[in-house]
UniProtKB/TrEMBL annotation, chain A:
InterPro entries attached to this UniProt entry: 2Fe-2S-bd, 2Fe-2S-bd_dom_sf, 2Fe-2S_ferredoxin-like_sf, 2Fe-2S_ferredoxin-type, 2Fe2S_fd_BS, Beta-grasp_dom_sf, Diverse_Oxidoreductases
Domain annotation 2Fe-2S ferredoxin-type: ranges: 6-82
Coiled-coil parts of chain: none
Record key words, sorted: 2Fe-2S, Iron, Iron-sulfur, Metal-binding, Oxidoreductase
Source domain of life: Bacteria
Name of the featured protein: (2Fe-2S)-binding protein
Organism: Nocardioides endophyticus
Keyword Transmembrane attached: no
The UniProt record lists the keyword Metal-binding: yes
Listed PANTHER family: OXIDOREDUCTASE WITH IRON-SULFUR SUBUNIT
UniProtKB/TrEMBL annotation, chain B:
Organism from which the protein derives: Nocardioides endophyticus
Keyword set, alphabetical order: FAD, Flavoprotein, Oxidoreductase
Domain FAD-binding PCMH-type: 1-181
Family annotation (InterPro entries): CO_DH_flav_C, CO_DH_flav_C_dom_sf, Diverse_Substr_Oxidored, FAD-bd_PCMH, FAD-bd_PCMH-like_sf, FAD-bd_PCMH_sub1, FAD-bd_PCMH_sub2, Mopterin_DH_FAD-bd
Superkingdom in the source lineage: Bacteria
Gene3D superfamilies xrefs: 3.30.465.10, CO dehydrogenase flavoprotein, C-terminal domain, Uridine Diphospho-n-acetylenolpyruvylglucosamine Reductase, domain 2
Stated name of the protein: Xanthine dehydrogenase family protein subunit M
């Protein structure tokens, strides 16, 4: 049997891409294989680990729990879209660098996207709220302490960079 | 693992969606997909067709009404995401149990995509919202080839992951009755990991003399027990007399029974304290 293919137009990090994929193509696979945006990582592939988290219309979602055909018409942001326009690290990325918020780095793209959206919603999280913000992402290296510190550091950097946002 | 191939339809109207379902007995509705897609990826399910309702207009509604009428309550459309329902102050005011339970549904990222109605129709006895709908005596509106009908929560759950929604029907909205003046509610669950499925969860509704508690992850369907007239010290045992906690890889039956004892007392006490 020949599998039916669908023309899908995806808007990722401000760029429009047209791909032709079967309906069962997971959005995570479409990003990595069809668009070659390999920053989004695939860990458990059933929604538990959070490594594949991307922003869909600004909200964190699991790209492994969506089909590419379903994402047409949405604005998608991946980890590649979190750098500043001049190519320097965005505030969450910079905070991870400063706080040593990663070791192997496999889970990091999911943390970066989740925290980027989390700080938009809550620019000045308490320690507890910082922990809650990353509760849906697994990291097997760090023990999370430095990631929580990175959330708090990112909040401070963000405020310094863009004080009018808070 | 990747999902097996399936035909894909993205209808623009409910009528088209119902027609697509009616034409393929082995079709499934795709809304948020936060439970369905893992089942597909693990190939525990392999429907011949997915009918993606994310393009249907007017289904992302959240209405909360409390003007002293008999239809006071919260009505949630099929495409309202958990996160949007949880964020609504009107929902929290009219029926706080909906908000209390939603805060326990998976993690925030899953709630951004998953839908409350989808969770109700998925009929997982380990999920929060089917228990809330059952405890509150809510209902589900579905649309099929013959038009719309309302299914009372008491007739909705048939077995594990099995509801009385027919294969050619689409759940359009769920209705949670408002919290009556003088009534109180509470929700608590115990899970091994934050955001994971609960080993046992309990929701309480206290209204005057009436005391009811609904349980998730205890039986293979959402279960509500009437504890009216039971002395506080006997609540747990009285609940267990009407329940038969199941054993699985996550917990023994004896441990589940102990969680029922502990949680029953806690939620009833907490619901009484919250009476308004």
């Amino acid at each position: 049997m020949t599998e039916e293919l669908h023309d899908v137009r995806l808007t990722v990090n401000g760029n429009t891409h047209e791909i032709r994929v079967p309906a069962r193509r997971l959005l995570s696979d479409a990003l990595r294989h069809d668009l070659r945006l390999t920053g989004t990582h695939v860990g458990c592939e059933h929604g538990v680990c959070g490594a594949c988290t991307i922003l869909v219309d600004g909200s964190p979602m699991r790209s492994c729990l969506m089909f590419a055909v379903s994402a047409e018409g949405s604005e998608i942001t991946t980890v590649e879209g979190l750098t500043n326009p001049d190519g320097s690290l965005g505030h969450v990325q910079q905070a991870f660098l400063e706080c040593h918020g990663l070791q192997c780095g496999f889970c990091t793209p999911g943390f970066l996207t989740t925290i980027t959206a989390g700080l938009r919603e809550n620019p000045t999280p308490t320690h507890e709220e910082a922990r809650e913000m990353i509760a849906g992402n697994l990291c097997r290296c760090t023990g999370y302490q430095n990631i929580v510190k990175a959330v708090e550091r990112a909040a401070a950097l963000r405020q310094a960079q863009e004080p009018e946002l808070t | 693992m990747k999902p097996a191939p399936f035909d894909y339809r993205r209808p623009g109207t409910i009528a088209e969606a119902v027609a697509a379902l009616a034409g393929e007995p082995n079709a499934k509705v795709l809304a948020g997909g936060q439970s369905l897609v893992p089942l597909l990826s693990m190939r525990l399910a392999a429907p011949a067709m997915l009918v993606d309702i994310n393009g249907l207009p007017g289904l992302d509604t959240i209405e909360a009404k409390s003007d002293g009428q008999s239809d006071d309550g919260v009505r949630v459309g099929a495409l309202a995401r958990h996160a949007a329902v949880l964020a609504s102050p009107d929902v929290r005011r009219v029926q706080p149990l909906v908000s209390l339970a939603l805060a326990n549904v998976a993690h925030a990222t899953i709630r951004n995509r998953g839908t409350t109605v989808g969770s109700i129709v998925h009929a997982d006895a380990a999920a929060e919202m089917p228990v809330v709908l059952s405890l509150l005596d809510g209902s589900l509106d579905v649309e099929g080839p013959g038009g719309r009908r309302t299914i009372p929560a008491s007739e909705l759950y048939l077995g594990p992951l099995e509801s009385s929604v027919r294969h050619d029907e689409i759940a359009v909205s769920a209705y949670f009755p408002a919290l009556a003046p003088g009534a109180g509610v509470a929700f608590e669950e115990i899970a091994r990991r934050h955001g994971d499925y609960a080993l046992v969860g309990a929701a309480a509704l206290v209204d005057g003399e009436s005391v009811k508690v609904g349980y998730l992850s205890v039986s293979d369907v959402p279960t509500v027990v009437d504890l009216t007239g039971v002395a506080d010290a006997d609540l747990g045992e009285a609940a267990l007399a009407q329940l038969d906690p199941a054993e699985d890889i996550h917990a023994s039956a004896a441990y589940r029974a102990q969680l029922v004892r502990v949680l029953t007392g806690r939620v009833v006490r907490s619901a009484r304290e919250g009476v308004r």
